[in-house]
Every structure is written in C-alpha cells, then in structure tokens.
TrEMBL record:
Residues 27-54 are annotated as: Disordered. SUPFAM superfamilies: Periplasmic binding protein-like II. GO terms for cellular component: outer membrane-bounded periplasmic space. Keywords: Signal. PANTHER family: ABC TRANSPORTER SUBSTRATE-BINDING PROTEIN, THIAMINE-BINDING PERIPLASMIC PROTEIN-RELATED. It comes from freshwater metagenome. The keyword Signal applies. Pfam families: SBP_bac_6. GO terms for molecular function: thiamine binding; thiamine pyrophosphate binding. This is Unannotated protein. The keyword Ribonucleoprotein does not apply.
Amino acid sequence: MRRSLLVVPVLLTASLLAACSSSGTTAEAPSASASAPEASASMTESATGATDPQCGTTLEEIAAKAKEEGNVNLIALPDTWANYAGILKSFRDTYGLEAPVANPDASSADELTAISTLQGQPDMPDAIDIGPSFVQQALDAGQIEPYVTTTWDEIPDNLKDAAGNWVGAYYGIMSIGTNATLVKNPPQTWADLTKPEYKGQVTINGDPREAGAAFAAVVAAALANGGSYDDIMPGIQYFADLKKSGNLQVLDVTEAGLLSGDVPIALDWSYNFPGVVPALTEAGFDFTSTIPADGLYGSYYAQSVVANAVHPCAARLWIEHITGDAGALGYLEGGAIPARYAALEAAGLITDEMKKSLPSAEVISKVTFPTAEQVEAMKMQVTDNWGPMVGDA
C-alpha cells in the first residue's frame, strides 16, 4: 500500500461533501449535508457527459470500443487498497475485459516513471491513480489526456478538474492500525506513538517524498504537534525524533508485512485496513485501527486517462466504472468515501450497514484540507528536509 496527496481544498462531512469555501484559506468542514459542494475559486464551469469522439459519447458506445481493444493496463492498485480487488472483479465481470495491474504496490512517482519508461509499448499504463500532488508533474510532462465522465454532474466540483484532467473518485483519513496480538496496548494518538513501549514498531508507509500515505502521516503528525498547513516542520521533526528513539521503521505497508508481524503498527489510510482484517483474523491476529484525534488529515487520489494510451477507450471505460455506481459502491465496501456518495445516497443505494465501514460522522466533520498553495509549500518542506533530518540521518 502506498501513494500521495492533494492539490485542491476538499471538505468531508457526515453524509459527504457539503458547501465548500471558495477562498484561498484553509477550508473548514461545515455541518453535515448531502448536497454537493460549490466550486472553489480555482474551478471553472465544467462540461457534462463523456467527451471523447473516438470512443463515443455514451457508456454503451465506450464499452463497445473498449471491448475491441480487449484490455486496459492498470498500475499501483493493491487488492486491499479501497477494495480494488472487488472493483476490478466487477469491472472484468461487467465488461469482459482483461485488467492486468502492474506493480500493485507502486508509489505515485513510480506510476509516472512507468508511463515515461514504457511509452508506446504494449504494457504502458492506460490509466493512473495518483496522489494529486503528482498531477501537476504529470500535466507538465504531457502524460494526462482530459476526459469528462458520463457521471460528471454528480461529482462535486472540488473532486474533479474542470478541464477533465482528473477526478478524485474516493478519499479517506490517515489512521493508526495495530496488530493487537503483538502490541498489547494499541496507541490511540500521535503522542502515544512516541512512547518507549513502541520501539521498532511504528511503520510509516514508505518515503513521504514519493508516497502519499507517508506524506499524509507527516502532515497529520505536524497538526498534532503545533504545526499547520503553512508549516509542517513539526511533523518532520516528529519523525526525526521517532527515528532517533528507535520507534520508527520505514516500510511499504502491505498485507504480507502485516501478516508476518514485520508491521506491528501501521500509519495508513482508513480505507486500507478493512481489507486486510479477514486475513489477519484467519492468521490468529487481533487487529484494531483508530483515527488519532490529535492530528486529523484526509485526502483523495486522482484518476486520469494516460495520454497516448495503448487502449484509450478501455482507459475511459475504467474511469467510467470507478465513478459509476458499481465502482463507487465498491469503494464504500472497502471503507473509502466515494465522490458520488451524495448521489448514491439520494438514489437509496447506500444502506446503514454500508456506512459502518466509514469513519464516524463526527470525525469526518472535523477534517479540513489545505489549499493548493499550501500543498506545494508542504511538499517543498518535505523534499528539502526529510532526507537530512530523517531519511539519511
């Protein structure tokens, strides 16, 4: 499990997204509402419906063209990440296409490298799922093909790019997962993780310069230690201190690592733990997860069609699937909050049982998100300081 971060301010509410601030300051989550948010100041009025004439303008036309291509090349989609195993199965079953996933545990940076390295080859990725902090890099490199889905109007404006360069199909909140069989006193807060009893057990999910889950952990730790979206140095210092004390280990948080006991305590997204619990239970482990109240941070991931894709129509069909009902409900099953939650709830497709997999309404309502400018500044702080203070120290 891996990945990256966000580029526009987003709000979570108890039933989803509610009205969003359009100012350049950090947005605050308002009261619960099922309505879609207003567009932020950086957004412009967007089009509706599928927008690629070579593949068609209806889902049926796109699916027909995609079937002619035979498959879609995907990358960096672990089975237990937001229930991608279930979402991929529903895609294959519905459309009869192959959907091979290369390097499931790749980082967002790895995804963009794969596009460059495999350019024009049969196994080049056709669609990507990256942290939004990597979107501008992909755009600058000409790696993204704009695409507006048939469900565009039901996706909140701050979970999509007005030009169709990306859509944020799902999101979650940074959390602490603990193998309670190995760790008798599961930590509940960022402050708890500094205790000597957790020496060698606290696992950040990769390098925050490359992986969004790791970046999110740094931001959350900063918020828990007097930092802000304008200054996450307290978060970097927090992990420097964890390393110095011997509590920190830097590994990819995978199901194998959790099952082996190599990852007793994992810092990862709220939607990544439900998928590994069955295997851990079968292996005899008791597993628990919590969202630390002293440092709340959430983010979405951006999905895009790759420019010059080998299977361009299949790539569009994949984006249609993950933003359609089947994909959205699949994310929900995995504990992620789908972008079209409000539309699904209005249609009566979300049951109270499904909502149990989500963070509590109270937690969601407290989450705020940084502006694009704050994100870029945070990214630079990590780039400049993680190596000398933590990674290479």
